[in-house]
Amino acid sequence: MIEFFQNLSFMKTAFLVGILIGGITPLIGVFIFARRLPHISESLSQMNLAGVAIGSTIGSAVPYLSGINPRIYGVIFALIGAFLVELLRKVFRDFSDMSIPIILSFGTGLGALFFSILHGFNADFFNYLFGSLIAVNQSDLNNTLIISFIVVIILLIFYRPLLLITFDAEYAQVTGIRKKWIDAIFMVLMALTISVSVQAVGVMLVTGMMTLPIATAIFIGKSFKSVIFLSIIFGEAAVLIGLVLSYYLSIATGGAIITFSLLCFLLVIGVKHIYRMSMRRHIQK
Amino acid sequence: MLQDILQVDFLRYAFLSGIMIGIICPVIGVFIVLRKMSLMADGMSHMALSGIAAGLALQRYLPFLYFINPFYIGMLFSVLGSFCIRPLMKLYPFYREFVIPIILASAIGLSVVFISLADAFNKDLFGYLFGSLITISHTDFLVVLIVLVIVLGFVILCYKPLLILTFDEEGSLVSKRGKQVTDILFTMIVALVVSVTMNIVGVLLVSAMMIIPVAKGMQLAKSFKQVFIYSIIFAEFDIIGGLVVSYQFNWSTGGTIVVLAFVLFMIVLLIKKTVQSISRSKPVSYSSDETVKF
Amino acid sequence: MTIKTPVLDLENVSFSYDRKPVLEDINFGIEPGEFVGLVGPNGSGKTTLIKIILGLLKANHGEVRLFGQPLSKFKKLSWIGYVSQKSNSFNSGFPATVFEVVSMGLYSQMKFYKWFGKKERLKVWEALEKVGMEDYAKQNIGRLSGGQQQRVFIARALVRNPKLLILDEPTVGVDAKSENAFYDLIESMHKEKLAILLVSHDIGTITSKVDKVLCLNKRLHYHGDPKQFEMNRQEILTDAYGQHFELLEHHH
């Protein structure tokens, strides 16, 4: 424990980034969950990987462009991914579930291809896939802070129209909300959130971070507000406890965070199940 | 290049395995797509990864189990995962589509923990994730051959029950028991295919190999049989082309294959759309009653 | 007698989908405080007509005027309350309480920086009281029965203080008891001088309650007084529904 506190200053950055991510990821995740778009977030995160890989390649091949942070390419590619998913959904109307694995694997494949071109199958790439919160530095913290701030501000401004569309899209349109615009804004929010969350849990696990805390919260909360609140609590708990666990057990951060979330989820399902059974027995008596 | 293939052992095995996988994947893929199990295949491949990771961890901590190939544990996890999906869907009647992402994320999360425990963050892992030519040995080649025989045998022998399962899931043409048996067999075959395909294209890209060629085949085919034929042709092209290019430039095998497959897919879509806009018929769409004829 | 601007006015409205005509030459109006029933067989274009009035679809020909203004220029969207078919659009797994759902009715007329304060809460409670659902305010919407959900959606429409209420097949999937309660509710709103457009396939119930009947099947086959409609019912329905309308009708 003493050792842990000695390393605290080094861990401080990681904790701060973790707290930010643990907050905004479930926050956006609640809307993704309620709008039934989990697969889109998955595709976006894989396309994000492709974007970063291509961005790094461009950066190393064209010195002129090396100043651009690969993460910016990541956000752009994530948005392209969202567009592609919608396109394929329209093409395969009857088999629209197919469009997700196609885009998903295209993103992964593109990412793998460009990282291999860069000879980048190394520790950085692993960190990118599975997350390494311990490796973040001050500039990562600054970026995360700025992006989290932007995400929260946009969300506050568009909270009501977004909620309306999520709950009842037709009704929302009747009341004069432009669905296309709100959808586009939501995609941008998703792409931004994914691009920062990747630091903590990695590309492969971002969707988990966006679904598991919410899936847990939805079993307990009744109102939308309480589900948001609980999701953030579960998210924060997962990130912080996962971070400590990954430090002590030297497990990749993303794995620790998601496994902890999974345990929470299973625990809540189990408790709820037992509770229901006992209630039933009580009623029978 | 050709000389390399003939002389270098692992390359020869890789190409031969690739050609066989080009038959296996689309044959099973057609049923996966038509049964709308695309996402389930994805879930199963991710579960396979956690199985492999668990196997690696097991080997490190219990060395006397060295004879258990992590591969088989992957296959086992893949089947187990597929049986978890349905009960979970019952738990979430409102949010069925969330089951797969939860399985995907949990599977990867577990894999990462096991990989960390096995201390296996190394080049081999990239092979598992994104495929590699070098990992394919003579035994692997034999395993692919056996799986090819099993898959073809299964599809030919169970063709009728499979069709019923695919097009008449709710109907009563066949007894419930018969359907369940076929379904379980099918799931196990998918797990088998996932595990062998993994060697070449990697865990993360297996589902692409089952789906993208079929997606292309469905765009062009006019009958159910044609879907098979076109899909196999496309799959062979993707795999062989991808293998050659990735070997030539030393690129990631799975990445190259999948990107090639996707680019070709977009080209097929574009051509079909242009042809259609010339003949000015309905917008590009695929529906089961258009193409499926017996 | 003063000339009142009609709440809703349709002039020569036509709509076709994939070159198939769905609506042809529709003309009718709704006066303030009028209760109008729209009947027609399944697939007769009732829902399409509603969607055109709400601006969700655009008519190919003709003009829709709301409160005297063409649809494209009409900005007072809060004057229109809309309750859709129950099963249709709403996201039933969504974790929202009844109170939250009704609050959503107010969202689109509030600027984002405006706090959802005491005044708004009061409005929501009033709307809930009108439909008799105030005891359920804290319950999850997904757990309520069909009839109860329908009441909540009416409250969501009422909270906006509409001048025209449009209800699309509100009694589909609702049990008989809730159905009666529903018509009582609609009648009490009608007494408060709210113009109502009620879409239904349930001809028998509707004609006894409304001020005006519209019978739609691609075009308007009848437009006017319900008593007249009852008298010539046989002819009109054969005209609109074809030979087998008896099969479609509810027995009362």
TrEMBL record, chain A:
Q: Give the location in the cell.
A: Cell membrane; Membrane
Domain of life, source organism? Bacteria
Can you tell me which family this protein belongs to? Answer: Belongs to the ABC-3 integral membrane protein family.
Q: Which InterPro entries match?
A: ABC_BtuC-like (IPR037294), ABC_TroCD (IPR001626)
Question: Which lineage?
Answer: Bacteria, Bacillati, Bacillota, Bacilli, Bacillales
Q: What is its main location?
A: membrane
Q: What Pfam families does the database record attribute to this sequence? A: ABC-3
Question: How is the protein disposed in the membrane?
Answer: Multi-pass membrane protein
Q: What is this protein called?
A: Zinc transport system permease protein
Keyword rRNA-binding annotated: no
SUPFAM superfamilies under this entry? ABC transporter involved in vitamin B12 uptake, BtuC
Q: Which residues cross the membrane?
A: 14-34, 46-65, 71-88, 100-121, 141-159, 180-197, 227-249, 255-275
Keyword annotations for this protein, in alphabetical order, are: Membrane, Transmembrane, Transmembrane helix, Transport
UniProtKB/TrEMBL annotation, chain B:
Q: Which SUPFAM superfamilies match?
A: ABC transporter involved in vitamin B12 uptake, BtuC
Tell where it localizes. Answer: Cell membrane; Membrane
Domain of life assignment:
Bacteria
InterPro entries according to UniProt: ABC_BtuC-like (IPR037294), ABC_TroCD (IPR001626)
Alphabetic keyword roster: Membrane, Transmembrane, Transmembrane helix, Transport
Of which family is this protein a member?
Belongs to the ABC-3 integral membrane protein family.
What is the name attached to this protein's record? Answer: Zinc transport system permease protein
UniProtKB/TrEMBL annotation, chain C:
Single GO molecular-function term?
ATP binding
Family matches, as CDD domains? ABC_Metallic_Cations (cd03235)
Name the Gene3D superfamilies on file. Answer: P-loop containing nucleotide triphosphate hydrolases
- Report the enzyme's class at the first EC level: hydrolase
Q: What is its EC number?
A: 3.6.3.-
Q: Where is the signal peptide?
A: none
One Pfam family, short name please? ABC_tran
Entry keyword set: ATP-binding, Hydrolase, Nucleotide-binding, Transport
Top-level taxonomic group: Bacteria
Q: Which residues form the ABC transporter domain?
A: 8-243
Q: Does the keyword ATP-binding apply?
A: yes
Cited PROSITE patterns: ABC_TRANSPORTER_1, ABC_TRANSPORTER_2
Would you identify the family this protein belongs to, as annotated?
Belongs to the ABC transporter superfamily.
User: What protein does this entry describe?
Assistant: Zinc transport system ATP-binding protein
Q: Which organism is it from?
A: Scopulibacillus daqui
